[in-house]
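Hey team,

Filing this mostly as a record. A colleague (T.K.) asked me to run one chain through the structure pipeline before their review meeting, and I want the input and output archived in the tracker in case anyone asks later how it was produced. No errors, nothing strange. Just documentation.

Input sequence:
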Amino acid sequence: MFKKIFILILSVITLTSFTILTHQDHVKVNTETSTVKWTGSKVTSSHEGDIKIKSGKLILDHGRLVGGQFEIDMTTIVNTDIEDKESRLNLEGHLKNKDFFNVNEHKTASLMITTVKLIEESSYELQADLTIKGITHEIKFNADVEIKGTAFLAIAKIKIDRTKWEIKYNSGSFFDGLGDYLILDEIEFDVFLLSEK
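Output structure:
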């Protein structure tokens, strides 16, 4: 009798697990309409711009976010607030060289969601592994993810300490006497994601 009950329980667990797996949808990000905007700041001023998403997906389960991953094309980083073309191109070239993202050697960055906690309705608390320049660190951030069927709209603000990824150029944490040349360690990324139709 006990053996039959054990087999029945095992069957239910197996069936439940299978059902959960079959209801997970891996929904691709629309890389044309989705955006990642960056902001880097000095003490008295800041610059901003865009980076393109190379590929990505969110994993949905019964209308809830359960995971996801993205690849960012770091070679596409541009500035959007400097009007003078020469100054703008100088900044973009600097961001791409070894002082910052070294895109010749590290053409992509990636983010892998590792933990998802639903706070309320469409609000989530996320943990993820962020890899930049081949260096991976865990980050935490909140996201608002509206889900309808297998379609989604996701918005998040991600703040990182760039020095953890060996981006130390003019950082006050590592260099003294920088004055107006000091660049804050924090970089902000405003992420807007739409699913493919």
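Quick notes for T.K.: The longest strand covers residues 46-61. The chain has one domain: 25-194.
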